[in-house]
Every structure is written in C-alpha cells, then in structure tokens.
Amino acid sequence: MLHTLQKSILLLFLTVVICCGIYPLALWTVGQILFPFQANGSMVFDPNGRPIGSLLIAQPFTKDDYFQPRPSAASYDASASSSSALAASNYALRNRVANSLGSIVKYRNGAKAGQLVAPDMESWFQHDQFEGSPHIVAQWATLHNSLAQAWVNADPSHGAYVDSWTKTHPSQVSQFIKDNPGTPNPKAADLAIVFFQNFSKELPGQFPSRVTHVATYGKTETTIEPVNTGSDIQSIFFDMWRQEHPAVELEDVPADMVTTSGSGLDPHITLQNALYQLDRVSTKWARNLKRNPKDVKNEIEQILNGKASAPFGGLAGEKVVNVLDVNLVLRKQYGSPQS
To answer: Please, are residues 64 and 280 in contact by the beta-carbon 8 Å criterion?
Structure first.
C-alpha cells in the first residue's frame, strides 16, 4: 500500500514539474529566441520607448489623417472583448450602423454621383421638419428614449450640460417630477427626453455638440454648444434622413466599415475598406503638407498595396491591412498630423 502511494506521489510530482515547469519554460525559451516580437505581444514603441499599441489589438483613430478600424462593441477594450450580440430587429444595431454611415455615405447616381450626402443631410436637418412635423430633435428623443439617455451618459460634459439646463428651466423639471412621482430627484439622464424636447423648441434646427475653441496662449477649450452642422448631426440623424429619402440611391460601402468583429478587437480592415477611406486620408495630408492631392493619394495607395496581404499567404480570403501598421507608416513618412 505504501509503495503504491509513493509511486502515485512521484508520478504526480513528475507530472506537475513537466506540465507546469519544463513545458512552459520550453515554450517561453523557444518564443523568446525564435519569435521575440510575437511572444511579447507584438508591441510597437515610439522613438522614446513608450508603447504605442499592439499589432494584434485594434485601437481607435479619430483624426482624418489616419485610417480607422472596424467598429468595436467592446470600445477597443482588450479586457472586455466581445461582439455586439445585437439582434437584427434591435434598433440599437440599426442606429450604430447609421451612425457609421452618416459621414461617409455617397450618392450613387445623378448629378451628385460620388459626392457625400452629409451636406444635404445637414441642410435637411436645419429645415427642422420630419414627416411633415417640426422639431426633428424632439421627435428623435421621443421615438428613441434610450438613445437620448445614452447621449447624456456618453460623456460627463453632456450630463453637465443638462444639469446646467435644469438650473435655468425649473418649471420643466418640476413638471417632470409631478408627472413621475417615483423620481423625486431626477438625474440628468432621467431628464433627457424633457431636455431635448425643450431644446428643440428653443433652438430649432440645432443640436448640442462638442465644439473646440482656441483659447489664450494657443490652448484649446472644448464646450457643448448648439450646432447645425458636423459629425454628430451627420451620424445621429442619418437614419431619419434616410427614412425621408428612401428612393435616393447610395453607394455601397465595404461591410467591415459598419460591422464589428467577433472580438471587437480585429486590428485589420479589408483593402477595399482602406481604399474607401483613401480620399479622406490623402486629402487631409495633402492639405497639411500643402502638396498636390493626387501625388499624396498615389503615395498612400502604394503604401496600402505594399502592406496588404491575404490570409494563409494569399490562399484564402481577401486582402487586409493592419490599421496601426499603416498609420505608423504615414506618421513616419509625413510627420505628426496637425490638430
């Protein structure tokens, strides 16, 4: 009995040593010797040794000088990797896709073929009529309560703006409390619908949005102000514009421009996606560098084609590019983008 127990303990000890010691150590050694870059997370550093990101994980790029990754249901948070899991019938999915399309979609046919829809959408918004009724913003908030509340919660400055509004509109707040006795101390998100309805009546054809000003000594200052143009209007109200213009033919966009990946962290976009963004990126760099737009576009297109590759050495799938990798090449070749 004792002999059998000793053999079992010895076998357990050897198993633990091999599986938890020798095997991981062997893998670590091979990785550090043969694949040190990949084994350490494919991290990229700036000239000062500070980490910029990983070629394996997507990160957001918001400036027009850079190519932008696929939308992310995880907000590009590697610790919260996930897909959106939204059903096709869920309006939140339709809204997210519409937000992505608003500023990039173009006309397909007619005199405006190839031109952005955004300027016409802004003019429609400023007219402040939806399905024959006034106050587009109020209608949006009433039809989609959760989106209005999400706007308030999306940024601390949004909530602060609504809080400031409550101080100058005590009668509206009192009426809300009277109509909702279960919420005697409403927070900013609770008042989202009332706020937008009042805002739309007082400032028709406008929407509260972040505006950046150059303050003293060259410093920038961002505040929430009423606007009637810009990316917020283009994205938030594209779906309503589309409902009023169903017959207008629009260009198709690459699917990965408006769909999230299964992880929400896919670092690649298709070459087709990158080429769709090429006009925006090259135009911005040409303006910054004061160079011929056509020459800059050709240079960046060559960069894209040089960086593009298909999975499994080209045996399967379409060509993709790594967004961070391409943007680093742009920064190296053209310098830091202007604000």
So the answer is: yes
Contact 307, 275 (CB under 8 A): no
Of 139, 90, 114, nearest to 244 by C-alpha is 139
In a domain, 326, yes or no: yes
- Same domain for 123 and 160? yes
Output the pTM of the full model.
Answer: 0.77
Q: Is 42 left (phi over 0), alpha (psi -120 to 50) or beta?
A: left
CA dihedral (240, 242, 245, 248) in degrees, to 10, reads: 170
Max CA-CA distance within the chain?
Answer: 93
Inside any domain, residue 26: no
Residue of 307, 294, 312, 314 lying closest to 67 (CA atoms): 307
Task: Give tens-digit pLDDT for 206-228.
Answer: 999 988 877 766 677 888 999 99
Q: Two tokens at 51?
A: 């980490």
